[in-house]
Amino acid sequence: MAFVKNLFDKNFIEYASYVIRDRAIPDLEDGLKPVQRRIMHTLFEVNDGYFQKVSFVVGRTMKYHPHGDASIYGALVNLANKEIFIEKQGNFGNKYTGDPASAGRYIECRLHPLAKEFFVTNPEITHFVPNYDGRDLEPEVYRSKLPIALLIGAEGIAVGMSTKILPYNLKEVLDAEIKCLKGESFKIYPDVSTGGLIDVSGYNDGNGKIVTRAKFDTSDEKKIIITELPVDTDAKSLLKSIDAAYKAGKIKISSVDNFTTNSCNIEIKLPRGVYSKDVVDSLYAYTDCEKSITCQMLVIKDNMPVVMTATEIIKYYAKKLVAIIKEELEFERGKLTEELHQRTLERIFVEERIYKKIEDQKTAEAVQAAVKKGFVPFKNELIRDVTDEDVEHLLQIPIRRISLFDINKNKDQVAAINARLKEIAKRLKHLTACAVEYLEGMIEKFEKLAKTAAEEKRDFVLERRTSIASFSAVDVKEVAKRNIALRYDDKGYLGTSVSGGRELLKVTPFDRIFIIRKSGLWSVCDVPEKLFVDSGMWYCNYAEKEIISKELFTVIYRDPKTRQCFIKRCRVAGWIMNRDYNFAPDGMEVLHVDTREKFKFTLHYVPKPRQKINEAEFKAQSYEEKGLKTLGVRLDSREVESIEVQSADAQGMLL
User: Fold this and answer.
1) Second-level CATH architecture of 215-288
2) What pTM value is reported for the model?
3) How much is the pLDDT for 9?
4) What is 316-432's CATH superfamily?
5) Separation CA 226–CA 253 (nearest Å)
6) Which of 112-126, 333-347, 398-412, 532-546 is least confident?
7) What band does 651 get if pLDDT is binned at 50, 70 and 90?
């Protein structure tokens, strides 16, 4: 058993770690989940400027992703619909209507021209690891220059944790990063392409809750037009929620027409006597026109799941961008320095006729030595010492190239390299300014793309689409109208589904009711569909403290053993739901319950020999109000046969 337990513990930990790190949660470094990263890597591999069949890309990605084509296809379609990394051709679904994408063999995609502006694909900077079968290499993570996790958002459920990151506006994220680099304050909020309204008062910088609403056009009071969708909602699911609310009697509408295509247009017509102002709150309360979304920015940072805020991610990427630019400049400087060395070697090799010194050499070692010796007088002109690889490079120069060597062209190349090296040295001293310049350049490029997309009628917009507003979620309890009959029949059943019987109250599904049974037990419960409470129930009313606390309950009960009667007057100040309480002590027989401040009642005594008085009248107001848990006051020492109360039926909720 110990072996089996250890085996299960080990396997579970490995499985949980795999799901968290390699499937469900995006990596902070590039903002991508593994399947998305593998799709991008495949697109970089097959990128030739032409559109490729999605099914082809999916098939190529399968050699990196071990979970089948369905998950790859879904992730590719979702990534393409972000309109940032992938250009698409064909039906990739409709985010407004909720229609799915066509099969992979019918649609095409290609890498976006600016995709390389986001990711550093240079293998000298990006670390590559073997794929799942060891036959190929794939990037462990890309070095991303921009906070992709914020730009595309993420949602995933792992073992014991989950992430929900809403997408942000591209231009606003870049502007926030620029402000961060300049040391200025900034705030950013989610923005989705379907528009709608959001209240971010409880958002807590990415780890709280937003309330999102559809945007209505109510200019015609007999018609409501939904022009923008809430976050994470499409027209199909919205219509389904409206239909369900209508069938349940929650909203009053005449008809619904869906004209949604490339923008939301749902027309709700209202029946006679109903106006838009009467229905708006009900739409928010009972349909997906209003939703609350809980967010949590859980990402993988340094191989560990970490909860971060949007501000922290922006600051992290601002610092990271500076580091990447520095690495790229240093890498370029290294390449240019090497190229400058080679140009200098070639010039000296040809100009000083060092190649002539190898004509009389008999062995390869002698040739190497002769070439190196020829460069000794020019050591001060060289950037570094001459290596065997340098000599091999020089010996491979064709004779034709040596004879046609252009010294002026060489000098121009050297001058250009030196100029670029000076510029790099200058930029390395002002890395923050370089990072700001890069971000501003990206904004200009995306603005040009947005302009082109508008001309071609493609869905790529830089401006914010989701409006930030201040509102509170509509409480369905406040919107619900008391129009359901609560009935009580002769068999002792109480509820909204009871047929026949007497109607006691008009209720909503969210009401609670206070009832006193025949036995004197009282309790508070939700409005029942059908509940047996016994015949002869004394009292039923809304269980609202402002109502019940004002009621003065007068309970008259009898001891079955002595047949003596007692009176108790008290109020109810609080309760626990669905718990039974008793006005009278255990075993007592409740004869009457009343809520009037003043009333008279008559006790009829058990007839006995030589008993002259067989009845007596009492006034309830003659007895003091006491606590709920106190015992009653004895009315008389004589045995009581029955009680008669004057005008009991005239009292409000007495049954």
Assistant:
1) 2-Layer Sandwich (3.30)
2) 0.78
3) 61
4) Topoisomerase, domain 3 (1.10.268.10)
5) 14
6) 398-412
7) very low
